[in-house]
Specification:
InterPro entries: DNA_methylase_N6_adenine_CS, N5-glutamine_MTase, SAM-dependent_MTases_sf, Small_mtfrase_dom. It comes from Mycetocola manganoxydans. Keywords: Methyltransferase, Transferase. This protein is an alpha/beta fold and 384 residues long. The protein folds into two domains: 159 residues, no CATH class; 215 residues, Rossmann fold (3-Layer(aba) Sandwich), CATH 3.40.50. Helices cover 33% and strands 23% of the residues. The protein is built from twelve helices and 15 strands. The protein has a seven-stranded mixed beta sheet with strand order 11-10-9-12-13-15-14, with helices on both faces. It has a six-stranded mixed beta sheet with strand order 1-2-6-5-4-3. α7 links the parallel β9 and β10. α1 packs across α2 and α4 packs across α5. The longest helix is centred in the first third of the chain and has 19 residues. The radius of gyration is 23 Å and the shape is globular.
C-alpha cells in the first residue's frame, strides 16, 4: 500500500462542539482561531450565574454556553478575569524564570476565560438579548458561513475589536497616515520602530527594497513615502498579504509595491532589505503568538543567513529588533553578533531608541525590570 503524499491527505473535518439543551442533544461548528480544542463538557449559563460559580466551572474544564443577555455575559467575563490571580514569584527569581512563569499564567488565564461561550446562528447573528451586530466583523475574520457555530466570548470580543481597528485604523505618525490592520495581522501599535525606519539614512541611490514579513505593509508604505520606487513585500500569511495590499492601495502606493507569498526572501536582489521579525525566541503556544514569538529564532536566523545573497553591491539590510530577549535571558548580545558575523555580514551602524508603550511604565508587570530598560534598534547591515 503506497503512502499518501501531503497533497493527497484528506482535509480534516471542521471541529464541532456538542452539548445538551433542554434534554435535547445539540451540535454546532466550533470556532477557535487560537487553536483551542472544542470543550467536551458544556453546561448552560444565564444571568443567575455568579462569577465565583463560573470561574469554578471554567477552572475545572467545564465550558459555559451563555443563553441569556449578551451584555451580562461580558460583565461576567470581566468579573471572572478580576478574580484570577497569577502565580506567586519566588524570591531571587531570575528574569528568564519570571518570563516563563508569566507565559504560563497568561496561557492559563486565556484557557479559563475562554470557557465562557456564545452561540452564533446560521445567519451570522448572536441569538441573545442585547447582542451587537457582528456580521461584518465575522465575515472579515472567518469568511461567509451558513453553519451555526459556538465561539469563546473572549475570542469574539477580539474579533469585534479587530473590526474596529480595521474600520478606524491605527495612526502612524512616522507615515503621516493611518494603517488599517486586518483580523489576525499584527497591528503597528509600537511607534518607536517605525520612527527608526522613517529616519535612518537610506543607502545611496537606493531604488529597490524587500520588506520581509510585511504584515500590515506599514514598513513598505514608509519606504514608498521616502521615495523607494520598487518594493517587494513578502509574507506567508494570505491575510497579511491582503492587508498590506489594501493599505498600500489606500495610501496611493499601488504601483510601488508587489505582494508575494514567500518564506522570507523573494527571488533577486534589492538595494535595501528590511525585516522586523518577532522579537522573542520562544515557542508559540497558540496561533496568536506567532507575531510575538519566533521559535528558536528561526526567522531572525533565516533573515541573517540569506541577507548577503539578496543585497545588491553597496546595499543594506535593516534588522529592526528589540533587546527584550537579551533582558529576559533568552538570547545574548554575543549570540546576535555571532550570527551576523557567521552570515558574512558587517554592522555599518546601529540606531537606538527607547519604547514609549505603557507596559514599560507598569511596575505591577512581573517583567517590568526588562521592559523598562528595553532598547529598540535598527541594525544597518552590509555584506562583509
Amino acid at each position: 500500500m503506497s503512502e499518501r503524499t501531503p497533497a493527497q491527505e484528506p482535509t480534516p473535518a471542521p471541529a464541532r462542539i456538542d452539548w445538551i439543551e433542554n434534554s435535547t442533544p445539540r451540535s454546532a461548528l466550533w470556532r477557535s482561531e487560537s487553536g483551542w480544542p472544542a470543550p467536551t463538557r458544556v453546561v448552560p449559563g444565564d444571568d443567575t450565574m455568579t462569577a465565583a460559580v463560573a470561574l469554578r466551572l471554567a477552572s475545572a474544564g467545564t465550558a459555559i454556553l451563555w443563553t441569556d443577555d449578551f451584555q451580562n455575559a461580558k460583565q461576567l467575563l470581566g468579573a471572572m478575569g478580576r478574580r484570577l490571580t497569577g502565580s506567586r514569584a519566588p524570591r531571587n527569581d531570575t528574569m528568564r524564570a519570571a518570563f516563563a512563569r508569566s507565559r504560563e499564567d497568561a496561557l492559563r488565564r486565556a484557557a479559563i476565560l475562554g470557557m465562557l461561550l456564545v452561540p452564533i446562528d446560521a445567519e451570522g447573528t448572536i441569538p441573545l438579548r442585547r447582542s451587537p451586530d457582528i456580521r461584518s466583523a465575522t465575515i472579515h475574520a472567518w469568511g461567509v458561513s451558513t453553519d451555526a457555530s459556538v465561539v469563546s466570548l473572549r475570542e469574539l470580543l477580539g474579533v469585534l475589536g479587530a473590526e474596529e481597528w480595521r474600520t478606524t485604523g491605527v495612526d502612524v505618525p512616522a507615515l503621516g497616515a493611518r494603517i488599517h490592520p486586518h483580523y489576525g495581522v499584527f497591528a503597528p501599535v509600537r511607534g518607536e520602530y517605525l520612527d527608526l525606519v522613517a529616519t535612518t539614512p537610506l543607502p545611496a541611490d537606493a531604488v529597490t527594497a524587500f520588506d520581509i514579513g510585511t504584515g500590515t505593509g506599514v514598513l513598505s508604505a514608509i519606504l514608498a513615502r521616502r521615495g523607494i520606487r520598487s518594493i517587494t513585500a513578502t509574507d506567508l500569511d494570505p491575510r497579511a498579504l491582503a492587508c498590506a495590499r489594501e493599505n498600500l492601495d489606500r495610501l496611493g502606493f499601488a504601483d510601488a509595491a508587489a505582494m508575494i507569498k514567500a518564506d522570507l526572501f523573494p527571488d533577486g536582489r534589492a538595494d535595501l532589505i528590511v525585516c522586523n521579525p518577532p522579537w522573542i525566541p520562544a515557542t508559540p503556544k497558540v496561533s496568536t503568538d506567532y507575531a510575538v514569538y519566533d521559535e528558536d529564532g528561526r526567522m531572525l536566523a533565516g533573515f541573517l543567513s540569506g541577507l548577503a545573497d539578496h543585497l545588491t553591491p553597496g546595499g543594506e539590510g535593516w534588522l529592526v529588533i528589540s533587546d527584550i530577549a537579551e533582558r529576559l535571558g533568552l538570547r545574548s548580545r554575543g549570540d546576535l553578533l555571532d550570527a551576523i558575523d557567521d552570515a558574512g555580514l558587517t554592522v555599518i551602524a546601529r540606531m537606538d531608541t527607547r519604547p514609549t508603550h505603557t507596559r514599560a511604565a507598569d511596575r505591577s508587570d512581573p517583567l517590568h525590570a526588562a521592559r523598562s530598560a528595553e532598547v529598540t534598534s535598527l541594525w544597518r547591515l552590509g555584506a562583509a
